[in-house]
Design brief:
Blueprint: E1 8-15, E2 20-25, E3 30-35, E4 42-48, H1 58-65, E5 75-77, E6 83-90, H2 104-111, H3 121-129, E7 143-145, E8 168-174, E9 178-184, E10 200-206
Antiparallel strand pairs: 1-10, 2-9, 3-8, 3-10, 4-7, 4-9, 5-6, 6-8
Length: 211
């Protein structure tokens, strides 16, 4: 499976099912996320690598682009309005900005006390973020790559089968050195992962002609 934007491969890693991942993507480099088996949600947080207090903002991104889903051309903006990354290629067509991240607490509330032992994306974010000096106060609104969250006419959000398929890809270009924090979603209580979490692949390329 090739990255969506060709160039020199800087990093190529497979993230196991349910696992966290992180890396700094240098300005101009492109991160391709590959949904290897299909229908796998990938929760994602973005931070300026130079100043992690500058972080991805779903409200600012939605306000500036005038739509609630992400696809090719979407600029992923910080709460300051600065561009962190841009979606430069997308084989799925829509990625969620509203569904948030699952956690032990939300699982227990939504699905019952028997889920209390299941870790969620919030736990993954806290674990992986600690490697970069980040804690609970540093978490913010997140992106859900490949996740399908339709908005019903009455305003309610649904979580339904994804629009992705095996091998589908989305590629984002860093506009500044960006810390990318990922939880390969462990959720098994709703269809966001087809009730069976699977691995994803993260490929960082440096396009031809880049320094």
């Amino acid at each position: 499976m090739e990255p969506l934007v060709l160039g020199t491969v800087i990093l190529d890693e497979t993230v196991p099912a349910r696992a966290p991942w992180s890396a700094v993507v240098a300005a101009g480099d492109v991160l391709t996320i590959v949904d290897l088996a299909g229908n796998q949600a990938v929760d994602c947080l973005l931070y300026s690598a130079a100043d992690t207090s500058v972080r991805y903002s779903a409200p600012e991104t939605i306000r500036r682009q005038g739509r609630i889903t992400l696809t090719t051309g979407s600029v992923l903006r910080a709460d300051t309005g600065d561009a962190l990354m841009t979606v430069v290629a997308d084989e799925v067509g829509a990625h969620d900005t509203l569904g948030g991240a699952c956690s032990k607490e939300s699982n227990t509330l939504r699905y019952g006390p028997h889920t209390g032992a299941q870790h969620g994306c919030m736990e993954n974010f806290l674990l992986e973020g600690s490697r970069w000096g980040l804690g609970a106060r540093d978490l913010a609104s997140n992106i859900n790559w490949f996740m399908n969250v339709p908005v019903d006419p009455d305003g309610a959000l649904g979580i339904v089968d994804g629009l992705s398929a095996p091998g589908k890809r989305v590629a984002v270009r860093a506009e500044t050195d960006t810390l990318v924090l990922v939880s390969n979603c462990p959720q098994i209580n709703n269809p966001c992962n087809a009730f069976h979490p699977t691995p994803v692949r993260m490929i960082v390329t440096r396009p031809e002609g880049s320094v």
